[in-house]
């Protein structure tokens, strides 16, 4: 009898030891303030071999766009599939800013719909949205250093490799790099010292990271920035921070392979918006809205490809849910919906708390681009819409954008006001150096004065003028184009339930 019991126990242990890992896992790797400054995007100076390798065995999106170049607002879009002007996260969540999403966004929110689709959900790193009841993960991996994606990957290993739970996993992986921070590099010979972008002082190393140091003379200066010593010195710090992110990607890939999960896990690499320089972050210029999007879906036959399809951050949640089998494609919403009455009772939400803005959250603004992974030649959106209202609470400056493959129209709704700066961008040496030279000093494709005081409309022939150097809004020869795109913009505002559409009528 004892021998029989021991034999059965051995069999159970053996079966448990060889239980195959769950299929169709997902890692969403989202960085903080990173433009497509990667080798796979043609940046010859960038040292990003891990991300480049994912692109070489996956898909690279040439036309991926954030909907707003502000951290909390953008992340709310990524995690809801709904523009932030509608989900309620108008600006920053932390400190006194205290913006948050409507309670009923839980109906569509990424971690909740993945859980209802049979996934265990985990979060590590930057969160920066609210309320937690809406964007709820089952597991929060605490204590990580957001400036060290390698250490974050190691901390994620038990969650990734956990086979005690046979559900597939969804991991939201959000390092703080390459956001500004950590003070200035006092060893610089420049009078205006560059920000460290989270790098260690005196060329130090984060634990487990082989830091990549960049020569300011050799970095790529994007067209929206002035080519000055101050800009180059800051870009060198920024690129170092980006390379640290890449090593975190490499460590995650190693962990997946060791757990026999690499070919069972979709990896999406993106950023919340463009780099933290004036002309990038907080703007709706290309430097703010263009983001990297590199995806490796091991279940796709076509890999190592690129696509020109235009995609938006509003598409991420419905795409991941589609991959998980939880998307009702016909109605473009989750197959399993929350019982909102029960949810309100559990979360102590009252109708007097305004849980939905008087409109139901019953469909996504975005749409799944899984078909594009199968066929890179397929189009996706005909046009992109973006909406920015706040960054910090002090920074009210609503902007709305409609953009297709030919033209881009920006409506600066608060154009009589000087453009408000994020505190870290105002202090940046790359900006202060030009500001000191006066309003006529060049700043990228414009002047300092033009950057601060903007016209009501900015119209660009984005196909012929990708760097947005010539505003055609006042050109008599483009009056018909301006009117056409104003109509497109207004239509998009109606489609995406934008409260600021009323500004056409009374201002």
How would you describe this structure in keywords?
globular, 8-stranded mixed sheet, 16 helices, alpha/beta, 507 residues, 4-stranded antiparallel sheet
Protein architecture, described:
There is one protein chain. By secondary structure, the protein is of the alpha/beta class. Helices cover 29% and strands 15% of the residues. The protein has 16 helices and 16 strands. It has helices spanning 2-17, 49-56, 71-78, 84-87, 110-116, 149-161, 229-258, 286-289, 316-323, 340-347, 370-374, 423-427, 429-435, 448-452, 479-495, 503-506; strands at 25-31, 59-65, 120-125, 139-141, 169-174, 265-271, 293-296, 305-312, 327-328, 333-334, 384-388, 399-403, 408-412, 442-443, 446-447, 457-460. It has an eight-stranded mixed β-sheet with strand order 4-3-5-1-6-7-2-8, with helices on both faces. Helix 7 (229-258) runs antiparallel to helix 13. The longest helix is centred in the middle third of the chain and has 30 residues, at 229-258.
Which helices and strands occur, and which strands form pairs?
Layout: H1 2-17, E1 25-31, H2 49-56, E2 59-65, H3 71-78, H4 84-87, H5 110-116, E3 120-125, E4 139-141, H6 149-161, E5 169-174, H7 229-258, E6 265-271, H8 286-289, E7 293-296, E8 305-312, H9 316-323, E9 327-328, E10 333-334, H10 340-347, H11 370-374, E11 384-388, E12 399-403, E13 408-412, H12 423-427, H13 429-435, E14 442-443, E15 446-447, H14 448-452, E16 457-460, H15 479-495, H16 503-506
Parallel strand pairs: 1-5, 1-6, 2-8, 3-4, 3-5
Antiparallel strand pairs: 2-7, 6-7, 9-10, 11-12, 12-13, 13-16, 14-15
Helix pairs in contact: 6-7, 7-13
